[in-house]
Design goal:
By secondary structure, this protein is of the alpha+beta class. It folds into two domains: about 5-165, Nuclear Transport Factor 2, Chain: A, CATH 3.10.450.50; about 215-480, Beta-lactamase. It is about 30% helix and about 25% strand. It contains 13 helices and 16 strands. It has helices spanning about 5-15, 25-45, 45-50, 70-80, 170-175, 220-230, 260-265, 300-310, 315-325, 375-385, 395-400, 460-470, 475-480; strands at about 55-60, 65-70, 90-105, 110-125, 130-145, 145-160, 180-190, 190-200, 215, 370-375, 405, 410, 415-420, 430-435, 440-445, 450-455. The strands form three sheets. Strands 8-7-16-15-14-13-12-11 form an eight-stranded antiparallel sheet, with helices on both faces. A six-stranded mixed sheet has the order 2-1-6-5-4-3, sandwiched between helices. A two-stranded antiparallel sheet has the order 9-10. Helix 6 packs across helix 9 (about 315-325). GO terms for molecular function: hydrolase activity.
Length: about 475
């Protein structure tokens, strides 16, 4: 059995030509699998997930601690990695070193070999992660009932740190910015490949992989896509008058309400203010004729929600579950604080000074704000959207169309702002979210099918965005310069 690891290494060295390209579907899937498996099973100690994603005959070879079978590996993980000790071991992969080699049997893919370099740290609440070692690894993944499971592990060539901690910068930046938690999701070539959560929920409790963030106006793209799904299904018209289903009492005497349509709502051309409570009268009113110009409005999305719910006799929660949340397995996404939501995973919100803001719970849906979700759930939504969202081609292109111009190289489509003028003739769909103690960004580049999302639970976010965009993320420097 111990010869197996040597045979694997020989196989890799002798079949370099079998390595798949880094933009291939298999490479991207295995990169995501590595990210999620070790973040959830090792870093966050989700033992149920770990147990269901390791093969029954797992073999683990370590150059310092010897051989472990499945039972010993699982017990040691509980005992030494997930014991609740003040200092918690953490593992991070160097994604640039990943290589993937497919395994076929008579032409059928049954597994893959993945190799690379990973780093190990000790994490202690309130302190920077301490880099303890670096090693090479070779993993054999097998497909069992369409689930990737870890079957063979070689962890070898462990070395002491030789340079500055390569991953400590983000944690240090969060502490210096008085922002406890950061969630990042990465889309590469149309696939969600990375989900990472840094920091703490409340400056004390380590933020888990499946931290629940409030994402403010990132609610709107969800509702926009539900609306497009209804249009694609023939249940709603893009330019159908909404007054047939809803007229707000505040504007019933202003006949301009007859001009309101889903298109005008999704492009923010309703003529409404952002929120009526922000006006002196505290009443909804038209500030200009609908369809004549752009003005960002949460009220418009709420107007659309009420019209759709009245027409279809279904709530926005029911429609979102039917068209998005259930099919995409977005099982940790909520419009409001439902009893089944795990509040212990909620990232509490902090102001510029790093002071905790009292949590305000909501108990009814708002189509424009207050969505509660995880990085992985919203990442799945972005992945789905960038791949066409199962919309008809004509409607998907209508979503990407420059419906209204905001500034030079800046437009609004259906539910998304559209920025043009990136290098390589690239363009971006983006949306942001901002509430007290909340700062979020979701962006997609349809030409390359790359994208990312950033969730922060604090107000003092500028330096964090600058670091992430200018140094770490696709075309981020160009995006930062467009702000």
């Amino acid at each position: 059995m111990k010869q197996l690891g040597v045979l694997i290494l020989i196989f890799i060295s002798c079949t370099t030509q079998a390595q798949v390209k880094k933009d291939s579907n298999l490479f991207i899937v295995l990169k995501k699998q590595d990210s999620i498996f070790f973040e959830r099973g090792f870093n966050q100690c989700d033992m149920n997930y770990l147990e269901s994603h390791i093969a029954n005959d797992l073999k683990f070879y370590h150059d310092q601690s010897g051989f472990q079978n499945r039972d010993v590996f699982f017990d040691n993980t509980q005992k030494y990695i997930c014991s609740g000790s003040v200092k918690k071991p953490i593992r991070k992969v160097d994604a640039n070193t990943l290589e993937v080699f497919p395994l076929y049997n008579n032409g059928d893919l049954y597994g893959a070999i993945q190799k690379g370099i990973h780093h190990f740290y000790l994490r202690e609440t309130g302190k920077d992660d301490v880099w303890t070692s670096t090693a090479k690894f070779t993993h054999v993944w097998v497909l069992e009932n369409k689930i990737w499971k870890l079957s063979e592990v070689l962890s070898f060539d462990h070395q002491d740190p030789v340079d500055e901690n390569p991953k400590s910068g983000i944690e240090k930046l969060l502490i210096n910015s008085n922002v406890p938690a950061l969630g990042i999701g990465i889309i590469e070539h149309g696939k969600l490949t990375k989900v990472e959560v840094y920091g703490t929920l409340d400056k004390q409790t380590t933020a888990p992989y499946n931290t629940i963030f409030k994402v403010a106006s990132l609610t709107k793209p969800i509702v926009a896509l539900v609306t497009l799904k209804l249009i694609d299904s023939g249940l709603l018209g893009m330019d159908e008058p909404l007054h047939k289903f809803w007229v707000d009492p505040d504007i019933k005497e202003d006949k301009r309400y007859k001009k309101l349509t889903p298109r005008l709502v999704l492009t923010h051309q309703t003529g409404f203010p952002n929120w009526r409570y922000m006006t002196p009268e505290n009443k909804l009113s038209f500030q200009f004729d609908p369809g004549t110009k752009y003005q960002y409005s949460g009220e418009g999305f709420e107007y659309l929600r009420k019209a759709i719910e009245n027409k279809l006799d279904k709530s926005i929660e029911e429609l979102a579950d039917e068209y998005l949340f259930t099919p995409l397995k977005m099982l940790d996404t909520y419009f409001w604080w439902k009893p089944e939501m795990d509040e212990t995973r909620y990232a509490r919100n902090f102001n510029v000074k790093g002071e905790e803001i009292e949590t305000e719970k909501y108990y009814e849906a708002n189509a424009a704000a207050n969505l509660l979700t995880t990085v992985e759930d919203y990442g799945r939504f972005l992945e789905y959207t960038i791949n066409g969202a199962d919309l008809s081609e004509d409607l998907y292109q209508e979503m990407l169309k420059h419906q209204v111009q905001l500034r030079e190289n800046d437009f609004f489509g259906l539910g998304w702002e559209i920025l043009t003028g990136f290098s390589g003739d690239e363009y971006a769909l983006l949306h942001t979210g901002k509430d007290p103690g909340v700062s979020t960004l979701a962006i997609m580049f349809p030409k390359s099918e790359n994208g990312y999302l950033i969730f922060l639970n604090g107000d003092n976010a500028d330096k964090i965005y600058e670091e992430l965009l200018t140094n770490r993320l696709y075309l981020g420097n160009e995006l930062w310069n467009k702000r």
